[in-house]
Write a structure and sequence with these properties.
Keywords: Signal. It comes from Mariniradius saccharolyticus AK6. It is a single chain. Residues 6-21 have low confidence and may be disordered. This protein starts with a helix and ends with a strand. The protein is 15% helix and 48% strand. It is α+β, with helices and mostly antiparallel strands. The chain has a single domain (24-126), classed as Sandwich (Immunoglobulin-like), CATH 2.60.40.10.
Length: 130
Amino acid sequence: MKKSILLLLVSLAFAGQALMAQGTGPVIEFQEKARDFGDITQGDKVEHTFVFKNTGDAPLLIQNVAVTCGCTAPNWPKQAIAPGATGELKVVFNSAGKLGKQNSVIRIYSNASEPIEKVSLISNVLPKGS
């Protein structure tokens, strides 16, 4: 019985070391998760650049960026972001045909430890001539 317990403890120690040796992998951290433009006029185009950093220990690759409607256009780096390096996600929101409070959610799909991150553009679209 003592040998079984000792063998189990040694096995767990080796498994723990193997997991620690793997590192954290890529980790994406945004400086901010939302940008509120306040009141804008219908038809205005507003844009914002979300800056992020790979705080992990492996290259970060953004595989896709999905938006909630065709009124939002994202542009992101297609090359890998090295550990410690920063990148930019530029997003343009076109308020044509929109009225009232808008919250455009942008989903970022990557190989990071958290594979889906979200950022958003917020605005209140007022009719023209207001």
